[in-house]
Amino acid sequence: MSTTEHSTEEARPETVTTAATVRTNAQGTRMETGEEIGAMDTIRRGLRFSPELTEGFWGTLTLALVAALGQVIVPIAVQQTLDTGLNGPDGPDVGFVVTMGVAAFFGLVVTSFASYLMTSRLFATSEKGLATLRIKAFRHVHDLPLLTQNTERRGALVSRVTSDVDQVSQFLVFGGLLLIISAGQVLVATVIMLVYSWQLALVVWLCFAPLFISIRYFQRKLSAAYGVVRRQAGAMLSAVSEPVVGASVVRSYAVQERTQGRIDTSVDAFRSASTKAQKFTVISFSLGGISAGLANAGVLVIGVFLGFTGDMTAGSVLAFAFLVTLFVGPVQMGTQIITDAQNAIASWRRVIGILETPGDLVDPGPEGETLPRGPIDVRFADVTFAYPGGAPVLHDVDLTIDSGTRVAIVGETGSGKSTFAKLLTRLMDPSAGAVLLDGIDVRDIRAESLRRSVVLVPQEGFLFNDTLAANARYGRLDASDADLVASATELGLADWLAGLPDGLETKVGQRGESLSAGERQLVALLRAHLADPDLLVLDEATSAVDPELEMRIGRALERLMAGRTSVTIAHRLSTAEQADEVVVVDRGRVVQRGPHSELVLDVGSPYARLHASWVAQQGK
Amino acid sequence: MAVDQQKPRGSTTREGFRVLGVAVRREPVVFALSTIGSVLFAVLTVADAWVLGWSTENVVIPAFETGEIGADMLWAVVALFIGVALLRAVGIVARRLGAGIMQYRMQAHTRRAVTRKYLELPMEWHQRHPTGQLLSNASSDVEAAWAPIAPFPMALGTVVMMVIAVIQMFAADVVLALVGLLVFPAVLAANLIYQRIASPLMTQAQRLRAEVAEVAHESFDGAMVVKTLGREEEETARFTAKVHELRDVNVRAGRVRAVFDPVLAALPSLGVLVVLAVGVERVTSGAASPGALVTVAYLLTIVSFPIRAIGWLLGEFPRSVVGYRRVSAVLEATGAMPYGLRSAPRGAAGARLEVDGLQYAYDQAVPLLRDVTFTVEPGRTVAVVGATASGKSTLTSLLARLVDPDAGTIRIDGVDLRDLHDGALAEVVAVVPQTAFLFDDTVRGNVALGADVTDDEIWAALRTAQADGFVAALPDGLDAQLGERGTSLSGGQRQRLSLARALVRRPRLLVLDDATSAVDPEVEARILASLREGAAGTTLVVVAYRKATIALADEVVHLEGGHIADRGTHRELLGRNESYARLVNAYEVDAPVPPVVASEGVQS
Questions:
Q1: How many Cβ contacts (< 8 angstroms) between chains A and B?
Q2: Whole-number Å distance between alpha carbons of A548 and B589
């Protein structure tokens, strides 16, 4: 007993060499991190996934520009008051100032209203777009192959559809358009500055040139830094989940301190990554202030000289000083948005990363085949399966299971039995060969039809934090309470159900933890029975149930399976004894098959050996 | 846990400041640094205006009037502007870096405190709180709580800016300054209205965020079931419902903000217009100089910035207050398990276990255990046998003191478990649960769990648990990373690692709760055989079904419906107890005989 089906593949993900679409990075996840996508590309792709984000874009932009005009109203009013109102050719002109003031007031009302419309539209479109993104990503996680799902930490996966999306939201609402507006303001300010004095405008731009040039450098640095931040955030979530999910183990081994130590480490790693990213942000931001100082000094000094040549008046130099603040404001705002955006973009990438991780098990959709109802015959045609980067765990398995038969698959731990079940139910696709149900390649069967006809009951039947009835109904959504009771009775579980304090309405707790492991398996069986499959695959489905009940369920299933096909994987060979046929798997190959009564007589064969140790276990 | 209506809402603003107060007391140095930076920045921003004014008065106007200017004056202008800008950059760095450090430190402190609390609080508390919610308490609620730290120093600094600006305004012209100051009460009023409307929305949004996380967490946890039953659509619908609720609340909150933001931005501008109107009057009447009017107008535009900054701060409050309340609910939760002062009893390889009159009910409704009494002498093995849901796992969780009994006592070497100090029990007892939980760590980390053991000891434990083979085959052996909850391993492998984890600690009482259910019979037989060697002398309590396991036991405790139906050796029970015989002999009934008529005759 050396390697087993699971250990080979996933403990060694670095060795993935296939040109497969699924990449594996240093963290061992098969999920796309999206880290190689550039910032602009991220935004482009993000917009493709959430088309709502661009809805009414031009309208919003127009509103934004109108709103931005609000910023120049006051400086213009000040300038006009000075130059025309107070220092006009005919002396102070109160009437002009009042008229201008009223005009400016209405201007402000209009621009403020535009600003309101813009902001609320922005909130509406970004929240809509992000809701779509969340839902798409969530759905895609469920469409991913089991293998890929398992390589990603649950907490990290959750954070991709929760906090990562929140980060993007912050950016889209307060950043995205503001960036465009800031750019617009810079443009408008530049134009106005040019109108006042092209020479001074040039001075201002020259003073800011170093900032504009260095932005790209900082952006790259920041992008990398925030990539680390998001990764550390995922690791931290995972560590934080341990005292919650592993609460009982932590307590029974009194490893609170050690667990806390691990959490502290990850919390600190996150903190220091965040601080590091903040350093870059701060430095790039402070450059803007220095440029502004240069620009102010430059404008006054050069302005004075221009005054000497008669190109400028005192009023226009001062107005220009105001205009510089109009220029500096949006530039600093823009710099800040660009730096803050790196965090959002890192998050956005991670969400997009999910969506761009290929869902290997492609549903052929409506064009796909539909399985006819009734018992299914199964054929494994030269099936080979290897986990990415691993050695094959099933070799050239060629096997037919006639419709309506009950087959038990036995073999040592790690012989490839579970792989068999996963291929049969299309949780994975074979590396070579094909799995055929009723002669149809499973890859050509519509997912809906496949899931309707083929049901797998795994060893750990996950339960949702709801009532027992709701969990059982997961198998058939329209089942009535009477149906549930009837199904339970058919399985011989009526007594158990009646013995529960609240019967069908019993709350099972998180992951079903208010029930014992055996009871959880009973609910999973009930669920599968309600689903009324044509092919039932049981993978150690009753391993935690007591022998008497297991036998009772076994006999009940036997009755219920009449007219269906069933494949059972079990360590307890009692199942094999009762199956129509036993398939013995050893190191990924089918080494023996036939009814129990024949195989057991073949002394020295793998089955006879397995059976002998089973019998010894039973103390027969 | 609806924290929403937890207490009568005082002023959100006041509570928001109280939350910030907590942060300031915790990180006074960084806070002081960033505030000084911010004040520096503020003072210099105002100085900028002063430099502009000074330059206007002393350089620009004279230059235009006289048509000439001294080089020294020009240099003074340049030096002033650049000096101010440089110092201001220093202020920015101190402020933003300080605020960032403070914010991240506070997040870290709170996350540590929350998780520490998770570790302290008893199992019952955990059973009552959904995982997704607890995770969100430690992540997004913490983030929300400390979000105002980022704009806080800036807001404080701008208060200084405001004060200086106001003083300058008064210096320039008292009447115009008074007119300009009308902006402040208007801003205050706008803010109060905003808080009033936005707070409930923020509360709702934060709760919904946690719920979205909860649904996602559970759904991803059950991904296999979702997939095998083809329930992706239903799950997506469930998630969509929550996401849409969150979206709608956010959109509504956004609309409120959309009103508030432009109003806040427009108020100072309106103020400038009013100042201009009044100013023109005063300038024409000779009461004020044009320079004073410009100064006041300019200062008022400067003041609009602090007002926005303070607005940003106050805008964060509703979410922060909600997040802080949710976090506090965890931090203030009570009910840590009480511990005694006794240290772990020492002695021979095996401990003596006395279970006396145990009574336990979850939720008080149906007793899961009643009047369970038995003793295990040192070094002996007791098998606990019973039908599904007869109380076996409850018994093991009482032995590990995950919960305390409602009545009765459990004693190890005569010491009541409740009298042992924190951590002492784990030195004596190791429980291997039915469902193995592995940490996101290496094999070594998972087995040793920080205990001071050598690699040889770890390998020995792995050997006994029949896990040495597959661990040796892992590319990094003991250093192989197992991934979150050991998802990269099969159920049987996880169980064996979990067993090795117990064995390496050389417990004096080892409790196995059907700990080999996912292991095939051959491997299980090997485990049992090596347990007899590797853990010889250890007192053993095994929950088991397999006869080979039961046969190893010196005594069998037969549980039925939460109480002991019978005790004795396996043979004795087989002989006299029909339901016991039916339970353990089930596999021998070869023919599909109806279970009720299985008779005593069927036995070994």
A1: 568
A2: 10
